[in-house]
Amino acid sequence: MPDLYAIILAGGASSRFWPLSGDTHPKYLLKPDGDTTLIDSAWQRAAQCTDASRIIVVTSGAQAHLVREALPGMDAANLCVEPARRDTAAAIALGCKRVYALEPDADVLVLPADTLLEPAEALQAGVTLARGQPGYRDAIHVFGVNPARAEGGFGYIEPGDPVADGVLNVKGFKEKPGKDQASEFAAKGYLWNIGCFLFSLETFDREMRRHLPQHSTRLLPAVEGEPTEQDYQQLDAISIDFGLIEKSGNLRAVKLDAAFDDIGTWDALLARLEKSGRTAQQAISIGGADNYAAGEAISVAVVGESNLLVVISEGKVLVLKRGFGQDVKRAAHEVERADE
Q1: Are residues 159 and 290 both part of a single domain?
Q2: Residue 273 maps to a domain
C-alpha cells in the first residue's frame, strides 16, 4: 500500500474572533480546552494516521513563524509557505506538489488546523477503513460525523448508497442551511462535513485537470518547479469544496464515531471552555453577572449588564452579548470600512 502523507491547512485569517484575528492571531492558536492549541490537536490527529516525517503544514508567509513556534517538533522542511493567499484549492494543490516531489505514488490526507475532533484516534480509524475498500484510490473521500445539534452554520453531507459499513457514496452537499433546515437534515441522516479529505495523488491530478484547469497548469504535482509569486497571485481564490470536491463524480463519505466542533465563534469558544471546566477571565460585574474579558483586557468592569464578553486587542474593542457571535465577522468588516 502506498505511503500516506498528511497536509494540515494553517493559513487562514478568520475575522470571527475579531479583534483577536488576522495574521497576528490566527484561530488555530486558540486553546479551547485551556491547554492545547487547535493546531497542536490537528498535528496529533495527523500523527495518529502517519509518521510525523510525512506531515506537511501549509501556511502563509505572514504566519510561518507562528506555525514554527506552535509546532517546535516539526521538521523545518515540512513547512510549505504559500506565495500568496488563494484559498484552500491552491493551498492543497501546493501541498500535494510538495508530496509528489517526495513520493509520486502517495496517498494524501488533508485536515484543517483549526477544528476539534475527539477522540484523536477516530480519524485514524476512518482513514484505515477507507483505504481498505476496493477502488478507494479512484475516489475522493470526505469525512463526516452525526450532527450533535441543529447547527445552521456548518456544512452537511447528503449520504448516498452504502459502499461498506461506515463508508457511503455522496449524493450532495449543503452549506450553512440555517437552524430549521439543519434539523431536517439531521432527521434525514445527513452528516456534518468536518473538512477532511483523502485521495491518491493520481486521482487528485485527474480531478484538478478536469475541474480546475487554471490551477492545474501551475500547481499540478507532475509539473516541475515551484510556482512563482506572480503565477500564484493570478490564481482564482476558490475553496477546494466549490472548485473540485462538489464537482467530482466519484465521491465517498467516511462516517466517524467522533465529536466535532469548528469553534467558529466567541460563543462556541466560551461554551467549550465552560464544558472543560475552564472559564475566560471574569470581568467585574456590578448589577449583572457572567461577564468576561479576553485579549489585552486586564481590568474590566461591566455595570448593569450580564452575559457580555469584552475583547481588547491593539486598540480595538469588541463588546459582545452572548448568543450574537455569528455577527462578529460583520462587525469586523464594518470597522474595516470605517477605517478606510
Answers
A1: no
A2: no
Q: Does residue 188 share a domain with residue 310?
A: no
Closest CA to 154 of 168, 171, 170, 173: 173
Write the DSSP symbol of residue 226: P
For the chain, the straight-line distance linking the first and the last C-alpha, in angstroms and rounded, comes to 55
Least confident of 36-45, 109-118, 222-231, 253-262: 222-231
Phi, psi of 77 (to 5 degrees): -70, -15
Q: Are 228 and 94 in contact (CB under 8 A)?
A: no
Residue ending a domain, among 209, 235, 264, is 264
* Rounded Cα distance, 292 and 294, in Å: 7
Tally of domains in the chain: 2
Residue 311's DSSP bridge partners are: 294, 318
pLDDT-derived band at 221 (thresholds 50, 70, 90) equals low
What confidence tier does 222 reach under pLDDT thresholds 50, 70, 90? low
Whether 270 is covered by a domain: the verdict is no
Please indicate, yes or no, whether residues 144 and 232 belong to a single structural domain of this protein.
Answer: yes
The DSSP bridge partners found for residue 112 are 9
Which residue range(s) make up the domain with 322?
279-339
Q: pTM of the entire structure?
A: 0.92
In this structure, the number of other CB atoms found within 10 A of the CB of residue 274 comes to: 11
d(C-alpha 28, C-alpha 20), whole Å: 12
Please provide residue 107's backbone torsions phi and psi, each rounded to the nearest 5 degrees.
-100, 155
What number is the average pLDDT over the span 322-340? 87
Task: Tell me if residue 37 falls in helix, strand or coil.
Answer: coil
Sign of the CA dihedral with 254 first, then 248, 28, and 263 last: negative
Residues 54 and 166: their CA atoms lie apart, in Å, by 26
